[in-house]
Amino acid sequence: MTEAERLRAVEELCLRALEMGVEERAGFLRDACGDERMRSEVESLLAAAGFADSLFQVPAAIGLRVEAAPEPGASVPAMGQQIGPYRLLERLGEGGMGVVFRASQTEPVRREVALKIVRPGLDSALVAARFSAERQALAMMDHPNIARVVDAGTTASDRAYFVMELVRGQSITSYCKTHELSVRQRVELMIPVCRAIQHAHQNGVIHRDIKPSNILIATTGPDGEPVPKVIDFGIAKAAGNPLTEGHAGFTQAFDILGTLEYMSPEQAEPGGPGVDVRSDVYSLGAVLYELLCGQPPMAGLNLREASLTTLLKRIQEETPAPPSQRAGRGSIRGRAVPAECDWIAMKALEKERERRYESPAALGRDLQSYLDGLPVEAGPPSALYRMGKLARRYRAWVATAAVFLLLLISATVVSLSLAVRANRAEQAALAERDRARLAEQRARTERDHAIKAEADAREAQSLTLREKSRADGESATAQAIARFLQDDLLARASPSAQAGPAAAPDPNLTVRTLLERSAGTLAAKFQDQPAVRASLEHTIANAYLDLGLFPQAREHAQQAVELRRKNLGARHPLTFASMDRLALAYRSENQFAAAEKIWQELYEHRRTALGESHPDTLHSMHSLAALYRSQGKNAQAVTLYERVWKIRRQVLGFDHPETMRTANNLAYAYLFVARAAEAAKVHEDNVARRRRVLGPDHPDTLQSMSNLGLAYENQGRYDEARRLLEETLATQRRILGGTHFSVLSTALNLGRVLFGQRRFEEAQSLLREMLRVARESGQEKSPVALTMMNNLGLYYIDGQRPELAVEILGGALAIQRENIGPEHPDTLRTLLNLGNAYRLSRDYTKAEQLILEAVEARRRNEGEDQFATLH
Fold first, then answer.
1. What is the pLDDT of residue 858?
2. Is 69 left (phi over 0), alpha (psi -120 to 50) or beta?
C-alpha cells in the first residue's frame, strides 16, 4: 500500500468512526484497522479532534480532510522558554491546531500577551494553511470587540506562531450567570458581539464557530465595565475576499466544521449549499437563546448517545421551543423572557437562512430596538402592537397629553358658551362699524388704483428697456456661438477645410478631434467677447467630461471660471455652474482636496441663499457625497446621499432623472458599508424606473445595470451578476464605444464576478485587456484603472504568480502615491498587497519593509491601538 493509499484509508476509518457511539467505536477500530500503526494513527486523529471521550464539542478537525497525527516524541514548549521577544509563562489551552500560552513581552513594550503556536507534530500543509488563515483572518480585523493580532513569526524549529491581545475574563454565559445579569443586561452584551461579527464579515471572514467559549467578557475601567471579545477564528471561511478566497487554509468542499450545539443547518449538511454570513447569524441566535433561558437550543437531544449522522440530521430538521418556554427558574434575574426576545432569537434560528436576519448588523439593530422600546423587525406587524410600544416608551408624555386634552375640552365648552353670548351683543355694533369702514375702504381703493397704475406704467417702460438690452446681448452671444459652431467646429469636418500642406482630409473625423482642433482658437477668436468665450469654454469642458478626458475638461473649466468671475462676479449663478464643472474634473483626476474646497463653498452659499431644498443646493450636496465616496468616507457619503434622496423624492418625485441618479449613487455607496441587500433592492427598483423613463439603452440605465450586477456579486449571486454584466457591457460598447470609462467600470465588475466563479484565467484576461484600453485612451490614472491594477495583482497572488503581481501592483502604487497621496487608504491597501506579493516571491526583506511602512502609516492616522498588524 502506497503512502497516499494509506492516508486515504486512515481518513475513511476516521469518518466511519465519527458516526458511531463511543462503545461501538472501540470494537470497530480493533477489527477494521490492518495493523497497530494504522490504529494508532486513527486514534491519535480522533483524540486531536476532541472525540476521545465526547461527541458534544465538534472542533475544527472534523471534516473529509483529516490532518496528520502528531509525530511521536514531538514536544510542547516548556514554561520559561523564549520565543522571539516573548517568554512563556503559563499554558492557557489547546485546540485542534494550536497551543495557547500566556507570555510576557519585554521589548519594544512591556506587556502580557497570548501566544498561539502550532501543536507539536501537526505540521502538515493543511494544518499550516489553516493556522496561517486564522492568523490572516485576525490580522484583517480592527474592532474593539475582537481580540487583535499584534505580531507573528516562526520559532527556531520553524513552527509558526502568532501573538494576540491577552483577554482576561469568563465566557459570556459564565459571566452572565456569575453576575446574575438581567435580560436587558444580557441583550446589551450581545449587541457589541453582533457588531464585531459584522466587522469580520465586512473584511471577508465568516467565523463559523461562534459559541459562548469563543466570546470572553473582559472588565475594564474603575467600575469593571464588561467588554465582550470574540476569539478563535481557527475555522473561519473567506467571504468574497480575494486575499483569502480559495486559500488552502480555509475549509475545503464537504467539510463539517463547528460546534454542534451552535452549528447552523447548512453547516451540518455535508455537500450542501455552503455557508454564508447568515450561518454566523444562526450561531449568534444560539448564543442569545442560551443567555435568555440558560441552555442552548439543541440541549436535550441526547447528543452523547446518537451517531454523528443522526445529530446532523436533527440539527437540520428539529426546531427548539422558544426561550421563554425553557427558561429555568431563577436563571435570569428579573421577570420572565419578554416576547420580543423570543421573536428575535427564533428569527435568528430559522432553519431556512432566507428567513433569518440578513446580517449580524440587522440582528444587532433589532436587539437595540427592543432596548429602546421600539417595534422589532421580528415581531408581528400589527398596528396595535406598534402603538402599544410607542405608548409604553413615552408613557409620561401620553399621560401629560391626556390631561391637557381633558383640560382643553373643558375650556372649549366654557369658551363656546361665553362666545355665543358675547357674539350676539357685538353683532349690532359691528354691523354699524363695518358700514362706515366699507365707505372708507372704497375711497382708499380708488386712490391706490390710481397710484398703482402710474407705477406700473413707469415699471413697464423700465422693463422694456432692460429686456431690450438683455435680448440684444443674448442675441449677439447666440449669433457668435452659432458662427463658431458652424464656421470653426463643424466646418472642420469638411475635406476642403482639413486639406493643407501638413495634413490629408479625414472623412471619419471624431468628435474628440474636432474639439481638440477648435478649442485652441477660442482665446484669439473671442478676445473682445468674454461672455461668448466663457460659454464656449464651459460647453467644451462638459464635452470632455462626457468623453472621460479629464485633464482637458479641467483646463477649459478653469478658463470658464476665470472669465466669469472677472466679468460676472464670484457669486453669479453662471460662475457657480463653471466652478461645479471644475470641481468634477478635479475629482475625476483624484485631486480630492481641490474638489472638496470648491463644492463645500458652493454648498454653503447655496444653502444659505436658496435653502436646502433648492435644486442647486441639492446638486452641491450630491456632489459632496460622491466626493466622500471617492475618498473612502463611506458613512458620510451614505448619510448625505440619503438626505438628498429623501428631499428629491418629496420635491421631484421618484421618476425624475435627478432622483434616480441619487438612488443609483446611494445604492452603490451601500455596498461599502455592508448593506448589500439594501443596495440590490434600490438598484433593482432604479433599473426598472430608468428602463421605463429613459429607455433600455440610455447611459444612465446601463450604469444602474452595471451597479446592480456588482450588488449581486456582493451577495454571492454570481450567475445573475454575470448575465446582467455581460449584457450591459455589450450594450455600452455599442452605444458608448470601447474606451468609455463606463465600459471600463462594467468590465471591472465582470472581472470580480468571474473571479468569484473561480474562472481565474477569464478574469485575468479581461482585466489585462481593459488596462490596455485604459492606457491607450489616457485613463491609466483613473480610479477604475487603479482598481483594475489592484485586483489583477491580487488575482496573480492567488494564482501563485508573484512576479506579475509585483509588476502590476508596483505600477499602481507609484500612481497612487503621486495622485492621491502616500497615506490614502487605497494607497496603503496597495502597499500591503505589494508586500504580500514580495513575501510570496520570498523577497522577505522587501516585504517586511513595505508592510512595516503601511503599519506605521496606520499607527499615525488611526492611533496606537487601532491598526491591524499583518504577518
1. 79
2. beta
The H or E element containing residue 314 is helix 308-317
Give tens-digit pLDDT for 100-116.
999 999 888 899 999 99
H or E segment to which residue 748 belongs? helix 741-756
Instruction: Categorize the per-residue pLDDT at 439 as very low, low, confident or very high, splitting at 50, 70 and 90.
Output: confident
- Among 231, 107, 229, 217, smallest CA distance to 172 is for 217
Closest CA to 40 of 60, 61, 13: 13
Average pLDDT over residues 536-565: 87
Query: Please, which residues bridge with residue 165 across strands?
Result: 113
Bridge pairing between strands 160-165 and 149-154: antiparallel
Integer CA distances (angstroms), 50 to 134, 285, 673, in order: 19, 25, 39
Do 79 and 91 meet the contact criterion of CB atoms below 8 Å apart? yes
Distance CA 619, CA 576 (A): 11
- The angle that helices 615-630 and 634-651 make with each other, rounded to 10 degrees, is 160
Q: What pTM does this model have?
A: 0.42
Tell me which H or E stretch contains 94.
strand 86-94
Tens-digit pLDDT profile for residues 473-499: 555 565 566 556 544 554 444 444 444
DSSP helix/strand/coil, 398: helix
Query: If DSSP codes are grouped into helix, strand and coil, which group holds residue 738?
Result: coil
Distances (CA, A) of 54 to 57, 111, 220, 289, 606: 7, 37, 36, 23, 70
For the chain, report the end-to-end CA distance as a whole number of angstroms: 40
179 three-class SS: coil
- Contact between 378 and 358 under an 8 Å Cβ cutoff? The reply is no
Read off the C-alpha cell for 582: 471644475
* Rounded CA Rg of the chain: 35
Higher pLDDT, 35 or 665: 665
Q: Calculate what percentage of the chain has a pLDDT beyond 70.
A: 75
Let me know: does 99 contact 119? Beta carbons within 8 Å: yes
In DSSP notation, 204-252 reads TEE-----GGGEEEEEETTTTEEEEEE---TT-EESS-TTTTT-TTSPP
Q: Report the chain's mean pLDDT, rounded to a whole number.
A: 79
**Sign of the C-alpha dihedral, residues 293, 297, 303, 306?**
positive
Instruction: Please tell me whether the peptide bond between 108 and the residue prior to it is cis, using omega within 30 degrees of 0.
Output: yes
Per-residue pLDDT tens digits for 278-304: 999 999 999 999 999 999 998 755 544
Q: Which residues of 467-491 are buried (b: 16+ CB within 10 A; e: fewer)?
A: eeeeeeeeeebeebbeebeeebbee
The answer to whether the CB of 622 falls within 8 A of the CB of 668 is no
DSSP string over 546-609: HTT-HHHHHHHHHHHHHHHHHHH-TT-HHHHHHHHHHHHHHHHTT-HHHHHHHHHHHHHHHHHH
Write down how long the chain is: 871
pLDDT value at residue 70? 45
Q: What are phi and psi of 781, to 5 degrees?
A: -100, 5
**Would you call 835 helix, strand, or coil by DSSP?**
helix
Burial of residue 118 (number of CB atoms within 10 Å: 0-12, 13-18, 19+): buried
Please answer whether residues 85 and 111 qualify as being in contact, where contact means their C-beta atoms are separated by less than 8 angstroms.
no
| pLDDT reading at 767 higher than 60 | yes
Q: What is the pLDDT of residue 461?
A: 65
